[in-house]
Amino acid sequence: MRAVTWHGRRDVRVDTVPDPVIADPEDVIVQITSTGLCGSDLHLYEVMGPFLSEGDILGHEPMGVVAAKGAAVTALDTGDRVVVPFNVSCGTCWMCEQGLHSQCETTQNREQGMGASLFGYTALYGQVPGGQAEFLRVPFGNRLPIKVPAGPPDDRFVFLSDVLPTAWQVVEYADPPRGGSLVVLGLGPIGDMACRVARHRGIETVIGIDLVPERLTRAAQRGVTTIDLRDSGKDTVDAVRAMTHGRGADAVVDAVGMEAHGAPFGKVAQRLVGFLPDALAAPLMRTAGVDRLAAFQLALALVRRGGTISLSGVYGGMADPIPMLQLFDKQVQLRMGQANVHRWVPDILPLLTDDDPLGTEGFATHRVPLEDAPDAYAMFQEKRDGAVKVVFDPAMNG
C-alpha cells in the first residue's frame, strides 16, 4: 500500500509499504477513504524527530470502510463505515470507564512514562502505524472504531477522529458561563472548531486571535469577534479587556502550543535540538526541553482573575519556565490533555446531521491526493494558499 512516512526534519514521503494484516482476533483492517493532516503532525515534521524512526507511518485522523475483520469482531461487518479515534483505547479498563481514554491502562506507554498509545505519533506513544495510508490496522475492533451511517460525505464525519472531540473538550474544560466570554488563541483547525463549538453552546462573547488573514476571515464569517495580532500587538490585552467589562476573559483556550510565534529563545532551543544526534536529542528533550511559551503567556495575561486556561495546543517541554506566582495570584485554573475521543462522541454525533450546525462539510480548505502529502505538509506549515485544514483522499488521482 501507499503511505505517508517520516524520513527526517521537514522530510515526509509517500512510500510503498507492506499492507497491514490481522494480528489479533479483535483487529479490523480499515480501507481509508479520508484522512486529515493535523497541526500536531507538524510537530513531528519540525520538532519531534528524536522520537521517530525513518519510515514511521504518520497520521491520526482517518476514516474509511471495514475491509477485513478478526474472528472475535462482532460489532462491525465488512463494508461498515467507521471513523477511527486517534487514541488507541481498549474501552474496558478503569481509565476508559472514567472517560479518560487518552490514559487507557491497556495501551499506556509505561516504559516511556506516557499515556495511551496514539496512531502515527512517535515512540513516546507506542509507535503505532498511522492513518495517512491506504489501509490501517485498528485494534479493539468491537469498541474503538466509531460506526457512522452511509450516505453523507466523509467531511461530515472524518473530524470525529480528532478535531471535533479536541475542540469540544477544550471548550468543556474552559467552562465559561453561559453568556460569558471565551478567548481562543490560534484559529487553526482546533481553534476554529472551538469557536464554533463555543458559539453553538451559547457562549455570548467568543473572541478569536490569530495573525493569518484567511483564518481570521473564516472565524469572523461564523460570528466570532476577531483580533489580528499583526495590528493589535501589545494592545491585545487592552482590546480584550475592553470587550469583557475591564476584567479579562472568563476563559482562554490556547490552541497554539509549543511552536508559538514570538518566542525566540524557545525557537532557538528547538532548532539546536534538531541538529543533535537522536541519541543525545531525545534525553535532552525529556529533561530540558523548552517550548515556545508566547501563547501561554498571552493566555495568562488575557484571562480574568479566577478564570480558566484550557490547553489543547501540544506542549512537549520538561523545563518550561512557568510563571507560578502569576498563576497563583490570579487564582487561575489550568486544564489540559489529549482529547478523550469516545468520552465526547455521544455529545457530538447528534450534531452531524443535514443541518450541520458546526459547518463540518465545509471545514476542510484543501482535499488532496495522498501522493501530494509532501507538498501539503509544506503548504500547511508555511500557512500558504489559505490552508487551514487539509484532508487526504487516497483514492484521488494526483
Structure report:
The two termini are 16 Å apart. The model is unreliable at 260-270 (pLDDT under 50). α3 packs across α4. β14 (366-369), α13 and β15 form a beta-alpha-beta unit. The protein folds into 2 domains: 2-161 and 340-393, Alpha-Beta Complex (Quinone Oxidoreductase, Chain A, domain 1); 164-336, Rossmann fold. The protein has 13 helices and 15 strands. With 398 residues, it is of the alpha/beta class. The chain has helices at 41-46, 94-97, 163-174, 189-200, 213-221, 229-232, 236-242, 264-275, 278-288, 294-302, 324-329, 341-348, 373-381, and strands at residues 2-8, 11-16, 28-37, 62-69, 81-83, 135-138, 146-147, 181-185, 205-210, 225-228, 249-254, 303-311, 333-336, 366-369, 390-393. The strands form 3 sheets. Strands 3, 4, 5, 6, 7, 14 and 15 form a 7-stranded mixed sheet that branches. Strands 10-9-8-11-12-13 form a 6-stranded parallel sheet, with helices on both faces. Strands 1-2 form a two-stranded antiparallel ribbon. The relative contact order is 0.16.
SSE layout:
Blueprint: E1 2-8, E2 11-16, E3 28-37, H1 41-46, E4 62-69, E5 81-83, H2 94-97, E6 135-138, E7 146-147, H3 163-174, E8 181-185, H4 189-200, E9 205-210, H5 213-221, E10 225-228, H6 229-232, H7 236-242, E11 249-254, H8 264-275, H9 278-288, H10 294-302, E12 303-311, H11 324-329, E13 333-336, H12 341-348, E14 366-369, H13 373-381, E15 390-393
Parallel strand pairs: 8-9, 8-11, 9-10, 11-12, 12-13, 14-15
Antiparallel strand pairs: 1-2, 3-4, 3-6, 3-15, 4-5, 5-7
Helix pairs in contact: 3-4, 3-12
